[in-house]
Amino acid sequence: MSATLVIKVGTSSLTNPETGQLALATIAALVEVICQLRQQGHPVVLVSSGAVGVGCTRLRLGERPRKVALKQAVAAVGQGRLMRIYDDFFSSLQQPIAQVLLTRGDLCDRNRYINASNTFQELFNLGVVPIVNENDTIAVDELKFGDNDTLSALVAGLVEADWLFLLTDVDRLYSADPRTQPDAQPITHVANLEELAQVQAGTQSRWGTGGMATKIIAAEIATGAGIRTVITQGKTASNITRILAGEEIGTQFSPQEQPINARKRWIAHALIPSGMLCLDAGAAQAIIQSGKSLLAAGIVTTQGDFNSQASVQICDVEGREIARGLVNYSSAELQQIQGKRSDEIPNILGYAGAETVIHRDNLVVTAVNPSA
Ligand SMILES: Nc1ncnc2c1ncn2[C@@H]1O[C@H](COP(=O)(O)OP(=O)(O)O)[C@@H](O)[C@H]1O
Ligand SMILES: N[C@@H](CCC(=O)OP(=O)(O)O)C(=O)O
């Protein structure tokens, strides 16, 4: 039985942290494992960081650039070299590859999202291994994924993967950074992300971007889509095969029992909200507990400037995000009808709009601890 696999490999695994040189042995081992998986019939997507890291080494820069334009320029240099290396290694094993560079905008627009999904399917049908990275050269701040952990989780949802492997320079997630806290406790299995409330995950390696915090977020996105997620060592690619065979290696996150569908995944994780609706306690409870549609009566405040069908955050009275959704009214209209009963809307607006502000089919609960 074939399984669709998304394998993300970070800069910290692809390059030597001290010299910045490519970790050729690690890359070669990863390519070999991917080719073996392909020969076993598994569709595989490789999400590869490293453009900035490899570019810095090529241009003899001692640290990651901070200026956006310089970072974009360095990534453009590194991405070309990275793909040259991958093509040399994969070609030596007769495995065709493709470069897929994405920006968040490619996944925000519904039509572009569906088009990207179709393209990946065509690449799988051709027996190709797509190699994905953020299009650092053109991605601008408000439309960046920011880190490839998040990107890999969104791609895993896009291709409806069965597994997401996050390869990094430690063997698993710990209760804290094992580099700075030797007594940090290893975490081998996560059934519910609330178990990680006390985990310290903020620091990252010299060349990494996201640290463990972004890997935990990636695991939340992927497991919410029903995708089993594993954090494991990048330099031991053979672990992937052993994990698929059932060995308890790395940190394994169980998929949620009731994954959300593709449209709701798109609403919850691919779209960037244009505004915020704060609800009263009763409306917040109704949204979280019963998955009802949102009516104007439950809205206390409307923030932002957006049109109908925009994506918005839905928050409780403390301003904590509890859900996201697509609105049936603009922000200007909502300013007029918030707190009002549905039967009052026609008189207020002068026309009979939608019965709901957000229909339940366009509303996704995102609160990590919905019962709170
Ligand atoms: N709780 C933790 N468990 C394990 N590693 C952690 C933790 N908190 C921080 N880290 C750090 O996160 C780093 C991996 O993240 P990052 O540097 O972004 O690597 P990558 O390039 O693979 O994404 C590890 O090298 C480790 O130093
Ligand atoms: N698009 C960037 C990826 C940044 C990133 O997330 O890096 P990492 O934390 O090493 O996975 C690059 O290729 O350098």
TrEMBL record:
Positions of the PUA domain: 275-358
Top-level taxon of origin: Bacteria
Keywords: Amino-acid biosynthesis, ATP-binding, Cytoplasm, Kinase, Nucleotide-binding, Proline biosynthesis, Transferase
Pfam families assigned: AA_kinase, PUA
An individual GO BP term: L-proline biosynthetic process
Pathway noted in the entry: Amino-acid biosynthesis; L-proline biosynthesis; L-glutamate 5-semialdehyde from L-glutamate: step 1/2
Protein's cellular compartments: Cytoplasm
The protein's Enzyme Commission number: 2.7.2.11
Binding site for ATP: 8, 168-169, 209-215
Gene Ontology MF annotations: ATP binding; glutamate 5-kinase activity; RNA binding
Primary localisation category: cytoplasm
GO terms for cellular component: cytosol
Reaction(s) catalysed by this chain's protein: L-glutamate + ATP = L-glutamyl 5-phosphate + ADP
Family recorded in the similarity comment: Belongs to the glutamate 5-kinase family.
Function: Catalyzes the transfer of a phosphate group to glutamate to form L-glutamate 5-phosphate.
Protein name in UniProt: Glutamate 5-kinase
Organism: Acaryochloris thomasi RCC1774
